[in-house]
Specification:
The structure holds 2 protein chains of 2 kinds. Chain A is mostly beta strands. Helix content of chain A is about 0%, strand content about 55%. In chain A, the strands form 2 sheets. Chain A has a 4-stranded antiparallel sheet, with no helix packed on it. In chain A, strands 5-4-2-7 form a 4-stranded antiparallel sheet, with no helix packed on it. In chain A, β4 and β5 form a beta hairpin. Chain A is globular, with a radius of gyration of 11 Å. By secondary structure, chain B is an alpha/beta fold. Chain B folds into 3 domains: about 1-250, Alpha-Beta Complex (2-enoyl-CoA Hydratase, Chain A, domain 1), CATH 3.90.226; about 275-430 and about 475-500, 2-enoyl-CoA Hydratase, Chain A, domain 1 (Alpha-Beta Complex); about 435-470. The longest helix of chain B has 19 residues, at about 1-20. The chains are: A mainly beta, B alpha/beta. The interface between A and B is medium-sized, with 13 and 20 residues.
C-alpha cells in the first residue's frame, strides 16, 4: 500500500524506517508546509517496506512517500 | 340505501387498505432483505408518533398515451406524500416507495402528488424532507418529447432555497434526474452500502459511454461523502439516517423569517472551559483536534458535525451556545495542518450561506496557516474557490463571533471572519499569530537585499527573523484596538455567549441589488 503526500511540502522528519511494524494512525513522517508540521500517518496497520524520500526533500501532492505491506 | 352507504364506505376502506399495503408482501420482504425499511416504516420514524397526515393515498398510475397501467395498480403511485411533526413542528415529506415500480417517478406521483407537497410546504413556509429510494423517472411514462413539459421540481427547489429547509435523505438508489434533488438540498445524509446517486444509473452509463460500473461503485456514500462532497453524512442504516434528519432540523427554524428554535440547556453560560491547555499544544506548528475544542466550548452534547468525512481540513456543523443554535466554522490543524484549499473553501462557503439564510449565528474558531499556494492549486482554481468563502463570510449578516485561537495568516484571516468582515465580536487567545504571512516568508521578501549584502547572511537572517517574530503577537492588534480583546482561552464560552446576546438585535442594511454574483 502506498502512502502519498496530501499536499506539497518538504520532508521535515522521518520517524519510521523500513521493517518497522506500524499500527493504523501511527506517524510515519512529518512534512512541513505552510508553517505547519503535518504528520503522515499509516492508513492501515502493516510493515514499512520502503521509504521513498529523505529529510529536506520537497514533495508534490500525491507523491508516494512510504510503501507499506 | 343503508346497504349502498355501507358498501360504498367499505369499498373506500378496501381501497385504502390495498394502497397502505404498498407493493405487497413479496416486495416488502425483498426490501427488508436488502437491509432497508419500507417507506411507511421510515415515515413512522421520521415523525412524532401519530402525527403523519397522508395526502394522495388513493393515487394510482393512470392510462397515459396508450400505455395501460400495471394490472395490480401502483399503490399511491410509488410515492407517499403528506405532513407530520418533528419535535412538534410541521414538516412535509415526499417519500419514494421502492416496492411500487421501483419507486419510479410517474406522472401522477410527480406532477400531482410531489408537486402538491412542494406547493403547500412553500405556502405554509415549512421544511420539506425527501426520502429517496427511487429508480428515477418512470421511463415508459416519460419517454418522448412530452419531456418538454417536465422539470418543475428543480425549479421549485431553487425557488424554495433559503426560504424553507430542504433535506434529501438517501436511503436507496437515486439515479438520473432525481440526483439533482440532493444536489439542491441543504442536507444530504447517505446510508452506507444501500444508497447511491448519480446523474446516470449504471444501465444508462453502459448504454451512453460503454463504461461498466455499478450504481454503488459510481455513486455510493464512499464516493459522495468522501470524494465528491455531494453527500453530507454517511450513516449506518435507515434508522440512523432518519435520526440525522430530525437532528439536523432541530437546529433550523421552519423558514427564513423565524429565529432558530432554542433548546434549554443545563450547561451554565458562564462556565469556564477546562482542559484547553491539554488540547492545544504549546508548539505553534504542532497539530491538534479542533473538534475537542468545539465539544468543550459549546453546550454539552450539542455538537452535530456536517460533512465530517470530506475536506476534513475545515470542520463545520451545528452546536448550541446557551441553548441557541449556532453554525461553527473551525480550521482543523489535524488535517493538512488546517490549511485552506478548494474543497474546504467550498464546504465552508455553502455552510455559511445556509446558516445566514436561516438566521443561525456563526462562530468562527480560527487557527489557519493560510490558503495553500503553488502551481497545482492554481490549476485547480484556488482563487475562484477561495473567493466563495470570502463572499459567503462578507455576505452573512447573522451575528458573527470570531475567536482567533492560534494562527491567522493572510487571506485565511479574512475568510475566517477577521476584523474587516463584520464580526460582532473578534477576540484572540494569548498565543494568536495574526500576520499577512509567516516570518520565514516575510523575512525573505522584506529584507532580501540586506541579507544578500551581509557578510554573514544566515546570522543577519536569523536576527531579522526575530525582529519580525516579535511583531506577531495579539497585543499589537489589541493595542491598535483592531480586535476587541485578548482572552484567557477558558473564557471562550462566556465570550461567545455574551457576543451572541450583544448581537441579538443585529440589522445590517446593504445597497439594493437583484442578487450578487458569487464566484462558483
Amino acid at each position: 500500500m502506498e502512502v502519498k503526500a496530501e499536499l506539497v511540502g518538504s520532508v521535515w522528519k522521518i520517524t519510521s524506517k523500513p521493517g518497522d511494524q506500524v499500527a493504523e494512525d501511527d506517524v510515519l513522517m512529518i512534512l512541513e508546509s505552510m508553517k505547519m508540521e503535518i504528520p503522515v500517518t499509516a492508513p492501515k496497520a502493516g510493515r514499512v517496506k520502503e521509504i521513498r524520500v529523505k529529510e529536506t526533500d520537497v514533495v508534490k501532492e500525491g507523491q508516494v512517500l512510504v510503501v507499506l505491506e | 340505501m343503508a346497504d349502498e352507504y355501507k358498501s360504498r364506505v367499505s369499498d373506500l376502506h378496501a381501497r385504502r387498505k390495498k394502497n397502505l399495503g404498498m407493493g405487497g408482501a413479496q416486495r416488502i420482504a425483498k426490501q427488508h432483505e436488502k437491509g432497508k425499511l419500507t417507506v411507511r416504516e421510515r415515515i413512522d420514524l421520521l415523525f412524532d408518533k401519530g402525527t403523519f397526515v397522508e395526502l394522495g393515498l388513493l393515487a394510482e398510475q393512470q392510462p397515459i398515451r396508450g400505455i395501460e397501467p400495471a394490472p395490480d395498480g401502483s399503490p399511491a403511485d410509488g410515492v407517499i406524500t403528506g405532513h407530520g411533526e418533528i419535535d412538534g413542528r410541521q414538516v412535509w415529506v415526499i417519500a419514494y416507495d421502492f416496492t411500487v415500480m421501483a419507486g419510479s417517478m410517474g406522472a401522477v406521483g410527480e406532477q400531482f402528488k410531489a408537486a402538491r407537497v412542494r406547493e403547500l410546504a412553500l405556502r405554509y413556509r415549512k421544511p420539506i424532507v425527501w426520502l429517496l429510494d427511487s429508480a428515477g423517472a418512470r421511463i415508459q411514462e416519460a419517454t418522448g418529447s412530452t419531456f418538454a413539459g417536465t422539470g418543475w421540481l428543480f425549479y421549485d427547489q431553487v425557488v424554495m432555497s433559503g426560504v424553507i429547509p430542504q433535506v434529501a435523505a438517501m436511503l436507496g438508489p437515486c439515479a438520473a434526474g432525481t440526483a439533482y434533488i440532493p444536489g439542491l438540498a441543504d442536507f444530504v445524509p447517505m446510508v452506507k452500502e444501500t444508497s447511491s446517486m448519480s446523474l446516470g444509473g449504471a444501465r444508462l452509463v453502459k448504454a451512453a459511454t460503454g463504461e461498466d460500473v455499478t450504481d454503488h461503485d459510481m455513486g455510493g456514500s464512499q464516493v459522495h461523502c468522501y470524494e465528491s462532497g455531494v453527500g453530507d453524512n454517511e450513516v449506518d442504516d435507515d434508522a440512523a439516517c432518519i435520526a440525522s434528519v430530525r437532528r439536523f432540523l432541530s437546529y433550523l427554524p421552519s423558514n427564513n423569517s423565524e429565529p432558530p428554535p432554542r433548546m434549554p440547556s443545563d450547561d451554565p453560560p458562564d462556565r469556564l472551559v477546562d482542559g484547553l491547555d491539554k488540547i492545544v499544544p504549546s508548539n505553534p506548528r504542532a497539530a491538534y483536534d479542533v473538534k475537542r475544542v468545539i465539544k468543550s466550548v459549546f453546550d454539552e452534547d450539542s455538537w452535530f458535525e456536517v460533512k465530517p468525512t470530506w475536506a476534513k481540513n475545515i470542520v463545520i456543523g451545528f452546536a448550541r451556545a446557551g441553548g441557541h443554535p449556532v453554525g461553527v466554522v473551525a480550521n482543523q490543524p489535524m488535517s493538512k495542518g488546517g490549511i485552506l484549499d478548494s474543497d474546504s473553501a467550498d464546504k465552508a462557503a455553502r455552510f455559511i450561506r445556509m446558516c445566514d439564510a436561516f438566521n443561525v449565528p456563526l462562530v468562527y474558531l480560527m487557527d489557519v496557516p493560510g490558503f495553500i499556494v503553488g502551481s497545482q492549486v492554481e490549476k485547480d482554481g484556488i482563487i475562484r474557490h477561495g473567493a466563495k468563502m470570502l463572499y459567503a463570510t462578507s455576505e452573512a449578516t447573522v451575528p458573527k463571533i470570531t475567536v482567533i485561537m492560534r494562527k491567522a495568516y493572510g487571506a485565511g484571516y479574512y475568510v475566517m471572519c477577521g476584523k474587516g468582515y463584520g464580526p460582532d465580536v473578534v477576540v484572540a487567545w494569548p498565543f494568536a499569530e495574526i500576520s499577512v504571512m509567516g516570518p520565514e516568508g516575510a523575512v525573505n521578501i522584506i529584507f532580501n537585499k540586506q541579507i544578500e549584502a551581509s557578510s554573514n547572511p544566515e546570522e543577519t537572517r536569523a536576527q531579522l527573523l526575530n525582529t519580525i517574530r516579535a511583531q506577531i503577537n495579539p497585543y499589537l492588534a489589541a493595542g491598535w484596538a483592531m480586535i476587541d480583546d485578548v482572552i484567557d482561552p477558558a473564557e471562550t464560552r462566556r465570550v461567545i455567549i455574551h457576543g451572541l446576546e450583544q448581537a441579538r438585535t443585529k440589522k445590517v442594511d446593504r445597497p439594493w441589488r437583484k442578487h450578487g454574483n458569487i464566484p462558483v
